[in-house]
């Protein structure tokens, strides 16, 4: 072998060895860069957040067993209970008093007793009523106390109780019996014998306290699609107020613009040829109005969000930490999501942030639509938050959490994966600047946000509830409405109340108004309310006094009384409104958090309405009151069925008390007017149908706290921006190799029903 050949072979061997070493080193490095790193433990709180934790399924069961053995009256399971029976309607956490909790959290005091709130319907008594008991201590109850009079000033009348599933089933049976009295009419109008028609409740139920008389709207029922868009023009008025189910009656019938005394009367008019009938075909699943079945085969998948080294947040029990944020979360079966003890960088910003009520108020020229004012808390905003679909309702790799509830049964139920937590890259800079003057550089920070989300399906509508936590120290609260619109049968001057969206379907106008409670504790419990806005002042220019300048001027004002801090819905309000601390920041301004509302609310119900006081929270886009333990909520589950004598009237909270240096609560209303249109078929889209508010630091810090973020990016003209060490964005190419192995898709939400 020649020397030249040997040198060539040696060179090739060395090159091969070098290549193999590079491959091995690369393979060694990749797994390390993709290893899941534990989130920063910024706030180890040793289980303190459990003071706010929802009841476990076992705790609920213990409360039920205790009540069954210690009340001295027979209890029938609510799913089988008739109006004349006694039953346990619901069991939920009794949130401890704030003073007790703060002594525990902040001053080393004793942990408050863990207790439950049990709601019972007592129908088998001389004076039927609704009673609320506090039961404790958990997990092994030994006492109960009646708190009904303490909370409401008296017993809750029995007619105010929410309608149970059993009551609806008995009403449906009555309607089916009555429909059999009009067989020829049903065959002609609807190609039906009544069994393929489904009923939809309205509410409230009558016109005065004590009424329990409800309009029910009938629709064609088509499997696999929303029946809400297929009204047949028939509506019935049912009196179900008597405690004896056999005495319930159908009082009135409506069809296509006409009223009848009964279904028998309707049949008689039809047979006599005195009734104009719109002959509807039974809809077919593939062509029915509002079908959500895909019309095209699946295309290529869209973008996928993932965390190269695992989640950067931590979830333990009911506690979340994320880049300085600390939040305790939970779910009330009636009012829905609730957050407590929200802290940023160790300082409490919000003690309680909770949904209070959701109102949907309709207009129509049909009786069911025109009388509908749903108060969704009565139906169960939290109870009907079902399993979320991974990859659509929330990112595929989000953390999913189960929620337990006990309502209308003696056995707890679980809505699996019904709350999700994830970090969201909004594809928008939180802040940035490109410098093209003097020195050349770029600096910025991605807007990554922690999101807590749940979605409630309340009959036809789906509400997406979001709570978001930003790196700037801001909290964002947002709700989107989607799902099916509710509709009326199109007849007469129907377009005075909405738009026609199908051959016989009127999309009825309505408003969505949502109410929140925000108990801000800005740098301590004692806060005041300050507003700031602009005025123009006209001044001579000081350098020549020859010209006039219109100079913007900042007008500051401290509000002293609750009446001053009650801002009517849709009226102008100060552009800057803040909860201020008595303590200054470095620049001698009061440490503050600003409330910024984003809303397109409709008009509030006139105060002359007999039911307006039950939703009097809707008078105000913002009302600030002194916090009181006896004013925990702005609404009540009992307001729906007796809005004429409301159990809780928010307007009574505002009585002109002093609000300077006090523990204050902000009550916020957001919403929008919805006039359904063709593009609401099959579903209302979330685009443009989102409202909410921000809680933003305003001189709370000495600078934007996000400057401390490890996600910050900065490079200058003197640096190589492609160097991973200088610019974290240059490292993303290797992070792409860390795409996760996704678990198989799973959905068990239908099993929970």
Automatic annotation (TrEMBL):
UniProt-annotated stretches for the region Disordered: 288-310
Enzyme Commission number, as recorded: 1.4.3.-
Required co-factors: Cu cation
2',4',5'-topaquinone carried by residues: 461
Post-translational modification: Topaquinone (TPQ) is generated by copper-dependent autoxidation of a specific tyrosyl residue.
Active site (catalytic residues): 376, 461
GO cellular component: plasma membrane
Cofactor comment: Contains 1 topaquinone per subunit.
Residues in Copper amine oxidase N3-terminal domain copies: 161-257
Domain spans labelled Copper amine oxidase N2-terminal: 75-143
A single GO BP: amine metabolic process
Family in the record: Belongs to the copper/topaquinone oxidase family.
Protein known as: Amine oxidase
Organism whose genome encodes this protein: Pteruthius melanotis
């Amino acid at each position: 072998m020649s020397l030249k050949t040997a040198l060539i072979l040696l060179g090739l061997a060395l090159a091969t060895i070098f290549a193999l070493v590079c491959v091995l080193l690369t393979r060694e490095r990749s797994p390390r860069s993709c290893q899941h790193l534990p989130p920063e433990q910024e706030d180890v709180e040793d289980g303190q957040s459990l003071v706010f934790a929802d009841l476990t399924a076992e705790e609920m069961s213990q409360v039920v067993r205790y009540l069954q053995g210690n009340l001295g009256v027979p209890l029938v399971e609510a799913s089988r209970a008739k109006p004349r029976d006694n039953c346990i309607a619901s069991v939920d956490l009794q949130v401890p008093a704030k003073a007790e909790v703060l002594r525990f959290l902040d001053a080393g005091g004793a942990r408050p007793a863990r207790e439950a709130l049990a709601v019972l319907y007592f129908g088998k008594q001389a004076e039927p009523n609704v009673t609320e008991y506090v039961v404790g201590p958990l997990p092994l109850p030994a006492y109960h106390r009646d708190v009904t009079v303490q909370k409401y000033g008296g017993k809750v009348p029995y007619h105010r109780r929410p309608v149970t599933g059993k009551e609806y089933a008995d009403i449906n049976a009555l309607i089916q019996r009555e429909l059999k009295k009009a067989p020829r009419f049903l065959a002609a109008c609807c190609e039906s014998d009544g069994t393929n028609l489904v009923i939809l409740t309205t509410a409230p139920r009558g016109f005065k306290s004590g009424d329990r008389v409800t309009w029910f709207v009938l629709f064609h029922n088509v499997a696999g699609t929303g029946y809400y868009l297929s009204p047949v023009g028939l509506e019935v008025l049912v009196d179900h107020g008597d405690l004896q189910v056999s005495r319930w009656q159908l009082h009135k019938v409506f069809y296509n613009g006409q009223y009848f005394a009964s279904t028998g009367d309707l049949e008689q008019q039809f047979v006599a040829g005195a009734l104009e009938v719109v002959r509807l075909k039974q809809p077919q699943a593939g062509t029915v109005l509002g079908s959500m079945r895909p019309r095209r085969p699946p295309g290529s998948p869209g973008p996928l969000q993932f965390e190269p080294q695992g989640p950067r947040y931590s979830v333990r029990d009911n506690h979340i930490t994320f880049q300085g944020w600390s939040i305790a979360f939970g779910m009330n079966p009636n009012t829905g999501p609730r957050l407590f003890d929200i802290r940023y960088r160790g300082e409490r910003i919000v003690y309680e942030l909770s949904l209070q009520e959701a109102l949907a108020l309709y207009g129509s020229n049909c009786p069911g639509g025109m009388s509908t004012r749903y108060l969704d808390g009565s139906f169960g905003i939290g109870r009907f938050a079902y399993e979320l679909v991974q990859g659509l309702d929330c990112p595929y790799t989000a953390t999913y959490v189960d929620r337990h509830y006990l309502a209308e049964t003696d056995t707890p139920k679980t809505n699996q994966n019904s709350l999700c937590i994830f970090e969201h890259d909004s594809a928008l800079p939180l802040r940035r600047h490109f410098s093209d003057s003097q020195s050349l550089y770029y600096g910025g920070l991605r807007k990554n946000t922690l999101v807590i989300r749940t979605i409630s399906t309340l009959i036809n509508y789906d509400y997406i509830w979001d709570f978001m936590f930003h790196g700037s120290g801001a909290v964002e609260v947002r709700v989107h409405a989607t799902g099916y619109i509710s509709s009326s049968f199109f007849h007469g001057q129907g377009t005075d109340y909405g738009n026609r969206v199908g051959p016989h379907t009127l999309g009825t106008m309505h408003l969505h108004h949502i109410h929140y409670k925000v108990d801000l504790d800005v740098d301590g419990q004692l806060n005041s309310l300050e507003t700031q806005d602009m005025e123009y002042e006209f001044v001579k220019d000081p350098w020549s006094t020859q010209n006039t300048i219109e100079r913007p001027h900042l007008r500051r004002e401290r509000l002293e009384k609750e009446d001053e801090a009650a801002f009517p819905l849709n009226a102008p309000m100060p552009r800057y409104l803040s909860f201020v601390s008595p303590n200054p920041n470095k620049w001698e301004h009061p440490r503050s958090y600003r409330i910024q509302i984003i809303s397109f609310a409709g008009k509030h119900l006139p105060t002359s309405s007999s039911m307006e006081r039950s939703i009097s929270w809707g008078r105000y886009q913002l009302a600030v009151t002194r916090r009181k333990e006896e004013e925990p909520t702005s609404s009540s589950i009992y307001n729906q069925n007796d809005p004429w004598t409301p159990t809780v009237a928010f307007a009574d909270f505002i009585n002109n008390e002093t609000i300077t240096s006090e523990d204050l609560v902000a009550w916020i209303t957001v919403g929008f007017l919805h006039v359904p249109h063709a593009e609401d078929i099959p579903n209302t889209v979330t685009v443009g149908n989102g409202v909410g508010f921000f809680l933003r630091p305003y001189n709370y810090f000495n600078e934007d706290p996000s400057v401390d973020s490890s996600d910050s990016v900065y490079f200058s003209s003197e640096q190589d921006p492609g160097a991973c060490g200088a610019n974290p964005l240059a490292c993303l190419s290797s992070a792409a190799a860390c795409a996760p192995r996704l678990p198989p898709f799973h959905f068990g939400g239908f099993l929970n029903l």
